[in-house]
Fold:
Amino acid sequence: MTNERLLEIYRFLLLNRLFDERLQKLYRQGKVVGGLYASTGQEAISVGSALTLQPGDFIGPMIRNVGSLLVRGVDPKDVIRQYMARATSPTGGRDGNLHFGDITKGIIGPISMLGSQIPVLAGVALGMKLRGRPNVALVYTGDGGMSMGDFHEGMNFAAVMKAPLVVILENNGYAYSTPTTRQMTVSSLADRAPAYGLERITIDGNDVLQVYDTVGAAVAKARAGGGPSMIECMTFRMRGHAEHDDMAYVPKEELEQWRAKDPILRFECVLVERAVADAAECDRIKESIRHQLEADFDSVDTEPFPDGSSCLGGVYA
Amino acid sequence: MPEITYLEAIRQGIWEELDRDSNVVMLGEDIGGYGGAFRVSSGMIDHFGTGRIIETPICESGFTGAAIGLSFMGYRPIVEMQFIDFISCAFSMITNFAAKLRYRWGASVPIVVRGPSGAGVRGGPFHSQSVEMFFAHTPGLKIVVPATAADAKGLIKASIRDPDPVIYLEHKYLYRRIKENVPPGDWTVPIGKAAVRRTGRDLSVITYGAMVHVALEAAGLLEKEDISMEVLDLRTLLPLDRESILATVRHTNKVFVLHEDTRTCGIAGEIAAIINEEAFEDLDGPVLRVTAPDTPVPYSPPLEEFFLPKVSDVVAVARKLVAY
Structure:
């Protein structure tokens, strides 16, 4: 991998992390409307997977995949607008957070019902196959979403149709407050793969290069007509389900164990080892991203809320 | 003009749209070589191929979700529910995913979810339901309920061409029981427009689906008693054709609503409310209802016959209203 590519990965990891941190500050200031769903600790999965895609590919993110959106060209200001419920947001304030999409960018926004993205992106993938386009749909779910019936229906459908669908299973330890051990009796999410005729794949989701390589191989396989894959990425949710949640249910030692495996710190070690960037260069990149984000947040804060009556209309064509 | 059944009209409409627009595809269970449980897709897979007639595993939510995904890729999917009762397995996909997309971020979801609806064929509680009101409370959806062969064809074509999600409820009792002359050529029946099936001067019955035929039979009997009953066939339940509803009220001044669906929160309640709000001064009597009782659809013939509104029920209510 070229140094430029490594630095691109680093910039997106940082953008994801610093964006979330800035949103957390905004939340504490009372300027986020509703909940804030941070991806802190899980950035390597969003960034490493989305960077494997090409123009014409689609993604179906979950609530924590802001990194994937940023990689796929979404303006950070649009996500801020969503969280601040402004008239200028992609939904005009009609919905919040990552609940928006843009077909021209290949982004299918999620709804709150977990698992439902799997059948929808399976349909997108089937459409690509029927149209003979060499494209792939990448969709995310987690240890919680996998308990839903829609996960099974969509996965089975994609497998039967041999659709070019790559499913990322983020095993972040908890579905809200319920640990994975009480979501399922199998020891690994990947144990379910054989039920769809697929290979069991589990990787270190906090190692961005491993995510990039593994997802890249699955995407290449799907693109070549080899059908779907599912990849379990081991990670940990370092914040509560949403910012209101102090996650008192997570043992401190578990959190500390995972803090030591922070995906960004680990990747900085790679950059230093490979002499791509030293600590000073890393700090310089951080500062420049922070600076840009400050400008973005300040600018969105001046934008208006929607007019109440704009709730009408747009229900039908 | 060729005479065809209601079922054949649906099949022809779908066939013509598949032929006209290569973006039209159909998904469902057993719709390939078997031709679908009621043979609506008979012969289609041989003519259009497996890329257009997509036979799926048993997963109503799964293939409805896939249809939404296909629509993002420019397709216009028709989703067949083998029996419309199974649509409840796809409830969240339809009401949360499909119905709210345009409102939330402007995405068009031109899908049609269709299937055999209604009772009268001894189908029991899970093969006889009227599901319209599960969905009529969801902004973003359209619901059509053809009662004639011509409407079955014209409305399926309009539904396929519509840019929003449409639930198309075909009444299985009518499939092979009605046969009509259906004009050839490329025409559609507009969604959202009711039709007066019989004009009358003494009172009006507002109805839809298989009950249109019950109403027409009752109107024929009432005529012998010199009672002239107008029959308004709604054809679309969402959006309701308010103008036609109000026009019939203003014409006869006495109205009742007839539906096969159960009573509480059936569309009759909504229609009575609209009339109350917008045409109260035009009424010479209360807006009455003839509906199924608030029970599941029972199986045994005497039970099902008791459950369904009958011509005699309609005649009795009409007499009562005329005498009011």
Remarks:
- The first strand of chain B starts at residue 3 and ends at 5.
- Chain B has a mean pLDDT of 98.
- The CA atoms of residues 204 and 255 of chain B lie 5 Å apart.
